[in-house]
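A.,

Following up on our hallway conversation. Structure tokens first:
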């Protein structure tokens, strides 16, 4: 699906004023291509997959107020919700502008990962989500931090896979976003490891 979308987006057609596809001459297509940032199937897979990845993080972080999370964890979760919702909107816009399939990014759909998109690295299984949802207080804090570290490490793996794909991340928006994800989530992993050490042992 993603490969097909990427190929179609790079193909030799444009929209007419009526919205219908019209064939371009080779010369016109060359001019159109020269002004368009190149992207690959790996870029599309990364952006599409990261929408689902972020949606699951928003779901998890959204449980903090109702699950007795500590004030420090609630503050972290608020930042995750705001930041990753903004990034979901950015990724959706990037896909939409290239006439590609756009996952809806609804966190409520992230309860069953794999329904809309394949499981991305680090994503929680339905069983892990159930375990987190059942936890309260310090147990929730401990499980949330443990699982979100796993989740963030998966996002870093996704960035590494993207950067290792031939021709990928040549689009400046994809490159900057991937670099930001790598930097931000590495920093948050360090912070969450410190928070985890401060939780009293059960």
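Then the amino acids I'd put at each of the 202 positions:
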């Amino acid at each position: 699906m993603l490969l097909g979308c990427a190929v179609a987006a790079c193909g030799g057609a444009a929209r007419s004023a009526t919205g219908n596809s019209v064939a371009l001459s080779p010369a016109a297509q060359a001019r159109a291509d020269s002004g368009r940032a190149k992207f690959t199937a790996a870029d599309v897979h990364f952006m599409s997959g990261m929408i689902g990845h972020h949606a699951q993080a928003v779901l998890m972080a959204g449980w903090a107020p109702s699950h007795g999370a500590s004030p420090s964890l609630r503050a972290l979760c608020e930042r995750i919700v705001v930041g990753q919702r903004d990034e979901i909107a950015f990724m959706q816009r990037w896909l939409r502008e290239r006439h590609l399939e756009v996952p809806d990014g609804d966190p409520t759909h992230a309860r069953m990962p794999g329904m809309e998109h394949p499981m991305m690295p680090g994503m929680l299984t339905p069983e892990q989500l159930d375990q987190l949802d059942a936890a309260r207080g310090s147990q929730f804090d401990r499980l949330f931090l443990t699982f979100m570290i796993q989740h963030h490490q998966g996002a870093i793996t996704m960035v590494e896979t993207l950067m290792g794909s031939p021709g990928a991340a040549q689009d400046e928006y994809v490159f900057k976003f991937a670099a930001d994800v790598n930097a931000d989530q590495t920093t948050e992993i360090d912070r969450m490891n410190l928070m985890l050490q401060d939780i009293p042992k059960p």
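Confidence is low (pLDDT under 50) at residues 1-22, 27-35. Curious whether your intuition agrees with the design.

B.
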